[in-house]
Write a structure and sequence with these properties.
Elements (H helix, E strand, L loop, with lengths): L2 E5 L6 H4 L16 E5 L4 H12 L6 E10 L9 E9 L3 E4 L2 E4 H4 L5 E2 L5 H4 L9 E7 L7 H11 L3 E3 L2 H11 L3 E10 L10 H17 L3
Parallel strand pairs: 1-2, 1-3, 3-10, 4-8, 8-9
Antiparallel strand pairs: 3-9, 4-7, 4-10, 5-6
Helix pairs in contact: 2-6
Length: 217
């Protein structure tokens, strides 16, 4: 089974990267059918990197690991979540005070879904008890009370990232089974880095990712 691990930055998978080997390298602590693709931050970088890579490589599964901000205060900082729906929240048009999603304009779709789920891959993942949540993908992460209220009233997301929906989109277009796992690094609020816990989120994300890949090793 060939698995593509996708991350926006090396920092998000720092502990994991040394354990992933390309197919042609037949040494190391993990199986040889794992590859790591670091796309760069944002939906444009993610879509381009994945489109280019998947055009020349085939996989049985692609997994997006990353951190996220949470609108949902019942999700603890550092907690892992499985994304079951991701929406391009800014894809559409303004009609005075109303926002029209791209579906309303008749030009496509804004929401994408994973084609795989942890529960379907291995019953062992039931031990992790990951919460499944809805997400939005944005070019500008929210840090303004008025814009936060607007997007919550319009889409009611639980978390947000800058890449997730683009990852789902690329995998959908290339017919690659996919899932997305994120660790919450901060709450979506007026920007205050003192309240963030990126270190804990990355630590928990990598611990989970390593255990995940061990199932295939």
């Amino acid at each position: 089974m060939r698995i593509l691990v996708v991350a926006a930055t090396v920092e998000e998978v720092e502990s994991l990267k040394g354990k992933i080997l390309r197919h042609e390298e037949n040494t190391g602590p993990m199986a040889l059918d794992f590859e790591l693709l670091v796309t760069g931050v944002g939906m444009a970088a993610t879509a381009f990197a994945l489109g280019k890579h998947l055009a020349a490589n085939k996989y049985d599964l692609a997994v997006n690991f990353g951190i996220a901000g949470s609108f949902d205060r019942t999700i603890a900082l550092g907690e892992l979540v499985e994304i079951n729906q991701d929406t391009f929240a800014e894809l559409g048009a303004e009609d005075d005070d109303e926002f029209l999603m791209i579906e309303q304009l008749g030009f496509g779709r804004s929401t994408y879904f994973p084609s795989s789920k942890l529960a379907h891959l291995y019953h062992l993942f039931n031990n992790f008890n990951l919460k499944t949540v809805t997400s939005i993908t944005v070019n500008t992460v929210h840090g303004n009370e008025k814009s936060i209220k607007k997007v919550v009233d319009r889409v009611n997301p639980q978390v947000e990232s800058m890449e997730g929906a683009a990852f789902f989109y690329a995998c959908h277009e290339m017919n690659i089974p996919c899932l997305q796992i994120r660790a919450v690094s901060n709450y979506v609020e007026k920007r205050n880095r003192d309240n963030w816990n990126i270190g804990l989120a990355i630590k928990n994300l990598n611990t989970f990712a390593i255990e995940f890949l061990k199932l295939y090793a």
